[in-house]
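Q: what does this look like with LLP bound?
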Amino acid sequence: PASTTRLPHGGLAVGGVDLVEVAERFGTPVYVLDEGEVRGRCRTYKDAFPEAEVHYAAKAFLSRAMVRWVQEEGLGLDVCSAGELELAVTAGFPPDRIVLHGNAKSPRDLDTALRLGIGRIVIDSPSEIARIAAAVGPDGRQKVMVRVVPGVSAGGHHKIRTGSDGQKFGLSLSDGSALHAVARVLAQPQLELTGLHCHIGSQITEVKPYLTALRRLVGLMARIRDAHGRVLPELDMGGGHGIAYRPGEAALDVTTLARRLRGELTEACAGAGLPVPRLAVEPGRAVVGPAGVAVYRVLAVKHTGETVFVAVDGGMSDNPRPALYGVRYAPRLIGRAGAAPRTATVVGRHCEAGDVLAAGVELPGDVRPGDLIAVPVSGAYQLSMASGYNMVGRPPVVAVHDGTARLLVRRETLEDLRLRDIGG
Ligand code: LLP
């Protein structure tokens, strides 16, 4: 995780900046992003996949600075709404290097994508085909891909498994709807089918499901060639690459994944008599997750029966992941050494009992109000999934790099919270 340095007296520095200083300067809760770590992770992908397109999945975390870093490191971008797309393009990202996803793209999503000149639109359902063709207009031509469900189950939690039938994304390989959709796309002169896409799930820590999915997609490419005489030049294997949230947990090794995907692709294409398509991957979590740290201040400590509750100034509105997926984090006290550890439960400030950030973790026995708690590996799917619950306001994002800290996204103020409500 983030380029952390342990400082004396229990301190923790990220990107050369003491987190206590960040908390004092910007307030808490605060999300700290290590720019060097994000860039380093982008480079790991570029090095591992020199011949492939690497699209960063913006849904994991997006800000204007993030857009710049990803662009400067040579990655493309995957977006799933007009909001993400417009932020990226106004921050200077080239639209032709952006891919639009979504199982239910709104008219605004499609209009914005076409207006801005998006690189690819990934078709997720049959009803979209005619809609996109109509929106493109008689003289236009838009590059599209078809998202296929290959029938592979993988992912860290049932809510984030998307590779099998019976969930809402993509077009089934097994019941023929993927091949049928391909035929319909090929019949639309406004649409240029560049390839197939799949995203089998998220927080996957094994290579094997990717290889199985890849073989099945190459098989479908061969059937498309046989049925339509069309050889598709691109194959997008999606994201989902798992990371470690706590010390000792397994992560997917990007270099191994790249090598095995490449090997499997070469072999499968040779077997099918197909030229090797250009590969693409779409990592989100693995690019930004380990580069983020959330810092909270303890507001209350309570002993109830056997349990010690340590209540902090954020919670499920900035990090819904423990409540949604039962994910376990490794919070730690920063800023002072603390007494011998004991088991505690870190809870948020929200008005429900399910607002638990980390149950049964080891924290110093003398944790008290005013202390700072850092939660490493907080860069992905926390702020991007933040809600307005209890109107506490969303925390700011601070970038740390080479010993300096700078604000990227400011804290939501009481005024922000009030402004959209026009009284009616
Ligand atoms: N491509 C597509 C089409 C996706 O739907 C996703 C994530 C990705 C790429 C990137 O997946 P990643 O590499 O980040 O795993 N909120 C959940 C994760 C949901 C993932 C949604 N799709 C969580 O907090 O674990």
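Residues 57, 59-60, 78, 101, 160, 199, 202-203, 238-241, 282-286, 321, 325, 381, 385 surround LLP (CB under 6 Å). Residues 208-228 form the longest helix (21 residues).
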